[in-house]
Amino acid sequence: MANFDFLIIGAGTGGMAAAQKAAEYGAKVAVIEKEKVGGTCLNRGCTPKKLMVYAADFALQESLAVSYGWQECQRQLDWSLLMQKIHQRLDSISNSFTKTFAEKGIELIYGEAKFIDSRTVKVNDQEISADKILIAVGGHPIKPDIPGKDLAITSREMFQLKEIPQKLAIVGGGYIGVEFASMMNAFGAEVVFMDTSELILSGFDKDLRTTVQQGLIERGIEFIGETTAEKIEQAGNRLQLHLSDEQTITADRVLLATGRAPNTKSLDLDKAGVKVGDKGEIKVDEFCRTENQHIYAVGDCIDRVPLTPVAKAEALAVVETLYGKQPKSIDYTYVTSAVFSRPEAATVGMNEAEARDKYGDRINCHCDRTTPMLYSLADEANQETVTIKLITVGKEEKVVGVHMVGEHAADIIQCIGVAVRQGITKQDLDDSFGIHPTIGEEFMSM
Which of 81, 196, 268, 409: disulfide with 344, CB 3.0–4.6 Å? Predict the structure, then answer.
């Protein structure tokens, strides 16, 4: 039996961060991975998605270029080449992580882990025990239980498409559905997507949701709200998606973007004394520790905030708790997040509804809309606006929420998020110097 100080199950963002930091503290570390180093984010999530967003942006810039005097030209996307280059890049990054493991003395074991007792797992035919274990197995897309669901694809298969579908139907108006709707529309596909609500992006600020939805519609994307998918049928070479409002959508592909679930089912967690919730999420305390005091869990397999930087922060906090001799927990109050659609959206802190629930009439909302300088030479049909919103509390107007839709939203909110976390007020923004001419300066002159 192999023995380690620290055993990590899952080589995604959280697992990799924990492994490297623990190794720096001198721990004997092993990582178990059943697929590919890098996890969902690198191999079938954030990274390939953002590369596809960049590729789609070239198509969106065509009409804007004409406004700046560039002559029109006919360009065509080589989809196969794009996907080949993306996967080559992903392989390169994954290989570099594997090399780093070797350099730091971290043992990488490929296979599926199953617990056989409170401190031991079995991988293939090998038993491995450890003083401390971290579960960082992430999650996977789930399909609604409807007839014909096997005819549809999930976000995982979107990165394996051999060609751009002429028409794509998307079920689900969360950030995954919205982002794929946006980029596939830019690639030239006819896109229709739907959600059970009248507005997309549940959980985000209502003004943000409304603005993004209207922006997608203005780009020619069809949205059907307040409906659910009931069944999918084969119709020759195409698919028919039947909705609860009696509409039928005929498309080449149907993408089910209806949520994700933790990858915990096959771990045999009951044998380790680890409790899970109804969806398979691992129950942890403020230090990401399970009922078994030797086992911790982070990332998408626990019921916190399923974002890559959060998983990394949780993992590093666990290592500090175990080996840095400084118990550390995560403050989730001001987590920044973004939706890489076009228009782009980003947010930090409370939305208006949350702020009103907590603070009532003490809140103030400041909301501005403006046309970025980039679009000042464009005709009306190609113009886009930027929406920015501040939510403040009390006479001192402490900023508790910032929301933005438009050009560079993610980068701007990422920086403002640092200030919000430090407790800034609206007056602090008013007294700051913006960089002119930029979109970011609008926050200093609301």
Answer: 409
Kindly state whether residues 8 and 128 are assigned to the same domain.
yes
How many domains is the chain partitioned into structurally?
3
C-beta of residue 344 within 8 angstroms of C-beta of residue 408: yes
Is the domain of 266 the same as that of 134? yes
| Residue 229 pLDDT greater than 90, yes or no | yes
Mark whether 87 is an active-site residue.
no
- Looking up tokens 């109804």 gives 278
Instruction: Give the pTM.
Output: 0.96
Rounded to 10 deg, the angle between the 46-67 and 175-186 helix axes is: 40
Mean pLDDT computed over 177-182: 98
Segment 358-378 shows an average pLDDT of 95
209 in the same domain as 132: no
Q: How far is CA 56 from the centre of its chain?
A: 18
Determine, yes or no, domain membership for 182: yes
3-state DSSP helix/strand/coil percent for the chain, to nearest 5?
35, 25, 35
Length of the chain: 446
Catalytic residue among 140, 242, 294, 436: 436
Last residue of a domain, one of 208, 236, 258: 258
**Residues whose CB is less than 8 angstroms from the CB of residue 331 and which lie 6 or more positions away in sequence, other chains included:** none
Render pLDDT for 386-401 as a digit per residue (tens, 0 to 9). Answer: 999 999 999 999 999 9
Look up residue 429 and give its two tokens. Answer: 């923004």
Structural domain for 350, as ranges: 344-444
Question: Are 183 and 52 spatial neighbours (Cβ–Cβ below 8 Å)?
Answer: yes
Whether residue 258 contacts residue 171, with contact meaning beta carbons closer than 8 Å, is answered with yes
Distance CA 198, CA 379 (A): 30
Q: Taking the CB of residue 139, how many other CB atoms lie within 10 A of it?
A: 22
The owner of tokens 């590729």 is 55
